[in-house]
Amino acid sequence: MSKNSYLFTSESVTEGHPDKICDQISDAILDAILEKETELAAKGYIAPNGVAADPKNARVACETVVTTGLVMVTGEIRTQAYIDVDKVVRDTIRNIGYTRAKFGFDADTCGVINAIHEQSPDIAQGVDASSNYKDSADKDPLDEIGAGDQGMMFGYACNETSQLMPMPIYLAHRLAERLTEVRKNGTLEYLRPDGKTQVSVRYVDGKPTGVEKVLISTQHSDKVEQAQIREDLIENVIKPVFEKEGVKWEGCEIYVNPTGRFVVGGPMGDAGLTGRKIIVDTYGGMGRHGGGAFSGKDPTKVDRSGAYAARWVAKNVVAAGLADRCEIQIAYAIGVAKPLSLLVETFGTAHVDEDKIEKAVSEVFDLRPGAILRDLDLQRPIYSKTAAYGHFGREGFPWEQTNRVDELKAACGL
Question: What is the pTM of this model?
Answer without folding.
Answer: 0.93
